[in-house]
């Protein structure tokens, strides 16, 4: 249907042999002056068949023109600017204001030697003023992120904006959460509240993970970002429910087993939160089973750990690998299509957020050719000469079939007795002549090929 509409709306400028120039009407397709453009509808749909339109004329040529002229340079510049911004934020976190701890330790496990400075003590030296400049840049960047993201959420809707992987939904959640963590850290710094390391740590992780969003500008890395999103929010989320049940059960068992033991000799399970963390590490085979051979271990520890190793390591981890392998196979079969959709989504996003002076409208105004105020895209097409030759053969076969049919009809009119016999004989004769001429025509085509 889309191809039919495009053929009805196109204007042929000129043709010379295999060369031709065509003007395609892109008034409602281009996203430059449309609130709800055709390109945005394609990339926001969940139907895979709809994304095949991106490979048709003139959508393919329009997207390629926009991406190569403006989209790719702006997107690479935005990626470089964001990486420099994250380096600035990371340096501010590394050199955050700390002072030596003055109080005494409350237990033998207390290992804290530095504490956070108060606001009055944080900006005294020259190095503090340099850090203040970086912190101001970080806060301003967080505010800009929120100002740019919130209008799109209100325009598109939260469900579609955060739920579509093509539109970068999970990355929008990451960058908005990062900006909120920056503002929370600023409030805690201004009020001299202890514990700013919590939002600061979350902001560092989320901010650097968001760098993967800019991989969609490269054909080699773009499909892998979608693959990671599908694995995290599809396979891993389902797997986490099973993992949580197993970890809770075995962590409780380990804590009960070592509840009566001395934590100084085997402290991996000295309280319940530490038992949960240790069991999680054992589940992912990050550490081996903790054991101190200088003391006697409970007998039930060996039994429970044996069952845990069978269920967690051999069964569940291989189940996760199989699930991710299936997702990788499905995404790999449509990676080119997904990358084109990512390019379109990124182009539409940049076109809406950049000033009009930096992104002129693509195409040609119809007034230059007397076609009104509609916008057109000029496309030069080169037709294969062999295709022309085959079309001429096909037309010759059709003409020969028509001649044979006319001759057969004339013979039947002179020799037929009834109208019914005329119809039956004409039908059988036309089939025989058509089959004979088609066979002869295909023999000619084979020899020429």
TrEMBL record:
<keyword id="KW-1133">Transmembrane helix</keyword>
<dbReference type="GO" id="GO:0046872">
    <property type="term" value="F:metal ion binding"/>
</dbReference>
<dbReference type="InterPro" id="IPR005821">
    <property type="entry name" value="Ion_trans_dom"/>
</dbReference>
<keyword id="KW-0677">Repeat</keyword>
<dbReference type="InterPro" id="IPR036770">
    <property type="entry name" value="Ankyrin_rpt-contain_sf"/>
</dbReference>
<protein>
    <submittedName>
        <fullName>TRPV5 protein</fullName>
    </submittedName>
</protein>
<feature type="transmembrane region" description="Helical">
    <location>
        <begin position="236"/>
        <end position="258"/>
    </location>
</feature>
<feature type="transmembrane region" description="Helical">
    <location>
        <begin position="74"/>
        <end position="98"/>
    </location>
</feature>
<dbReference type="GO" id="GO:0098703">
    <property type="term" value="P:calcium ion import across plasma membrane"/>
</dbReference>
<dbReference type="InterPro" id="IPR008344">
    <property type="entry name" value="TRPV5/TRPV6"/>
</dbReference>
<keyword id="KW-0812">Transmembrane</keyword>
<keyword id="KW-0479">Metal-binding</keyword>
<feature type="transmembrane region" description="Helical">
    <location>
        <begin position="197"/>
        <end position="215"/>
    </location>
</feature>
<keyword id="KW-0040">ANK repeat</keyword>
<dbReference type="GO" id="GO:0005262">
    <property type="term" value="F:calcium channel activity"/>
</dbReference>
<feature type="transmembrane region" description="Helical">
    <location>
        <begin position="299"/>
        <end position="321"/>
    </location>
</feature>
<dbReference type="GO" id="GO:0005886">
    <property type="term" value="C:plasma membrane"/>
</dbReference>
<keyword id="KW-0472">Membrane</keyword>
<keyword id="KW-0597">Phosphoprotein</keyword>
<feature type="domain" description="Ion transport">
    <location>
        <begin position="75"/>
        <end position="334"/>
    </location>
</feature>
<feature type="transmembrane region" description="Helical">
    <location>
        <begin position="171"/>
        <end position="191"/>
    </location>
</feature>
<feature type="transmembrane region" description="Helical">
    <location>
        <begin position="132"/>
        <end position="150"/>
    </location>
</feature>
<dbReference type="InterPro" id="IPR024862">
    <property type="entry name" value="TRPV"/>
</dbReference>
<dbReference type="Pfam" id="PF00520">
    <property type="entry name" value="Ion_trans"/>
</dbReference>
<dbReference type="InterPro" id="IPR008346">
    <property type="entry name" value="TRPV5"/>
</dbReference>
């Amino acid at each position: 249907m889309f191809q039919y509409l495009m053929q009805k709306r196109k204007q042929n400028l000129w043709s010379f042999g295999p060369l031709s120039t065509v003007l395609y009407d892109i008034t409602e397709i281009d996203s430059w002056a449309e609130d709800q453009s055709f390109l945005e509808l394609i990339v926001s749909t969940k139907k895979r068949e709809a994304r095949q339109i991106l490979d048709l004329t003139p959508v393919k040529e329009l997207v390629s023109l926009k991406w190569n002229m403006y989209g790719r340079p702006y997107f690479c510049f935005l990626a470089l600017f964001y990486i420099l911004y994250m380096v600035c934020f990371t340096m501010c976190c590394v050199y955050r204001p700390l002072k030596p701890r003055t109080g005494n330790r409350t237990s033998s496990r207390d290992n804290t030697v530095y504490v956070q400075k108060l606001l009055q003590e944080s900006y005294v030296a020259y190095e503090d003023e340099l850090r203040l400049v970086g912190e101001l840049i970080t806060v301003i960047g967080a505010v800009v992120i929120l100002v740019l993201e919130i209008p799109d959420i209100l325009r598109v809707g939260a469900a579609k904006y955060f739920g579509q992987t093509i539109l970068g939904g999970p990355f929008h959640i990451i960058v908005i959460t990062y900006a909120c963590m920056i503002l929370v850290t600023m409030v805690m710094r201004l009020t001299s509240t202890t514990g700013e390391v919590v939002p600061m740590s979350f902001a560092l992780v989320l901010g650097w993970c968001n760098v993967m969003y800019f991989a969609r500008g490269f054909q080699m890395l773009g499909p892998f970002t979608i693959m990671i999103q599908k694995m995290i929010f599809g396979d891993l989320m389902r797997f986490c429910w099973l993992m949580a049940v197993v970890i809770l059960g075995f962590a409780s068992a380990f804590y009960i087993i070592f509840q009566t033991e001395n934590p100084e000799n085997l402290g991996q399970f000295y309280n319940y939160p530490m038992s949960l963390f240790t069991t999680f590490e054992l589940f992912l085979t990050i550490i081996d089973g903790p054991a101190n051979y200088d003391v006697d271990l409970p007998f039930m520890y060996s039994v429970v750990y044996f069952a845990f190793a069978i269920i967690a390591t051999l069964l569940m981890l291989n189940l996760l690998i199989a699930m991710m392998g299936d997702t990788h196979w499905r995404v790999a079969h449509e990676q080119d299509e997904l990358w084109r959709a990512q390019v379109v989504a990124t182009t539409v996003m940049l076109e809406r957020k950049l000033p009009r002076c930096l992104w002129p409208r693509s195409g040609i105004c119809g007034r230059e050719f007397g076609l009104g105020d509609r916008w057109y895209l000029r496309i030069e097409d080169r037709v294969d000469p062999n295709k022309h030759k085959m079309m001429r053969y096909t037309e010759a076969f059709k003409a020969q079939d028509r001649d044979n049919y006319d001759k057969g009809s004339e013979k039947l009119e002179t020799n037929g007795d009834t109208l019914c016999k005329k119809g039956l004989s004409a039908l059988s004769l036309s089939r025989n002549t058509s089959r004979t001429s088609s066979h002869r025509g295909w023999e000619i085509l084979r020899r020429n090929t």
